[in-house]
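Sequence and fold
=================
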Amino acid sequence: MAVITQKKIEFIDLRAQQDRIRENLRKRIETVLDHGQYIMGPEIGELERRLAEYVGVKHCVSCSSGTDALLLALMAYGVGPGDAIFTTPFTFIATAEVISLLGATTVFVDIDAGTFNIDPGKLQAAIQDLKKRKPELRPRGIIPVDLFGQPADYDEISAIATAEGLFVLEDAAQSFGAVYKGRKAGSLADVAATSFFPAKPLGCYGDGGAVFSNDDSLAEAMRSIRVHGKGVDKYDNVRIGINGRLDTLQAAILLAKLEVLDEELALRDQVAMRYSDALKHVVTTPLVKPDRTSVWAQYSVLSDKRDDLMKKLKARGVPTAIYYPKPLHLQGAFASLGFVNGDFPLSEECAARIFSLPMHPYLSIDEQKHIIESLVD
C-alpha cells in the first residue's frame, strides 16, 4: 500500500491552490486595498465581462452567493404564490429554498440513477400530473441541477419547457466550466445561476455567485434586484430587491483563480479517471454521458457497504463526505408538501448509498493510490 507520510490527505485542498497563485492573489487584493472601492469596484465589471466571455453569453451579473443567484433569477421572472417550479429532491436545499421564499410551490421530480440529475421523462409526467391534481397551480419554470459537475439533459428539458411555456433556470452551482454538446455550463438555459462558494471548482474566499443570460431585459432586472431594486441610482427604487452584491475583494480573488481554472479542470478530470479505472469493480462509479463533461465538483460513488467503506477509509486517514444524506422531500422544511418515504425512490436509494472521495486538482498520484488501495483492500 502507498504510505502517505508527508501530509494529511485533504478532501478539498484550497491551500495547495493558494500556494500556486499566491503572488497574483496578493497583487489583486492589494490593488483593491489601494483603490478602496470595496462595493462594486472595478474588479466587479472586469469579472463579469470575463465570466460572460468564458461561458459564451451576453450578460453575467455577479452576486453575493449561489443561493442569491437562484433567487435573483426567480424574482426577475416574477415568481410568486400560485406558481409551480419543478426541480429535483436530490440536491442542496438552496435549489428549492428560493422557491419557497417567494411563496411559490416546489414540485419535485425524481432523478436519473446514472447521472443523479433530473429525469426528463419523469419531468414531463410530473407536469401533466400537476395539471390534473392541482389546477389552481400554474406551472412556471424548471430548475435542473447539474449535480456534482455534470450538466443535466438540457435538450430534452428545453423541449418540454418550450412545449409547456415554461422557463428553464440552470442550477450550475457545481458545474461551472463543464461542457454540454459544445456549450458551456451557464449557457444551457434561459438563465443560469452558479456559486463561488470556496469548495466549488471556481470558488472565492467567502460567499459569491453569478447569474448568466442572453436576455437583455432579464439581465437588467437582475442587476436592479441585486441592489435593492435600484433604478437610476440607489435612492431610486423601481422594484423590491435584495442586498445581493458581490464584494470587490471576492471578485479580485476570482479573477486570480480564473486564470488557472482550465488547467485545474483538466487535472480534476485526470483524478476522476484514475478513480474510475481503479474502483469500477469495487463501487458504482460515476457515469458521465459522452456528449458532455463533468468538472467533478465531487467524485461520488455508490455502495451498499457505504458505512463500512467510510469507516475503513477514516481509519486510514482518508476523509469522505455524503452529498446528500436526506433528499429534500423528506426534510422538515418541506413537510407541508406532504411527501413521504417512497415518493422518489431513486433519490432515496442514492441518498442511502452515496459517498464522496477526496477530489481536487492537487491530489497527488501517491495520495490517490493510498485512497484507492484503502478501498480495494
Observations:
- Residues 100 and 306 are 33 Å apart (CA to CA).
- The radius of gyration is 21 Å.
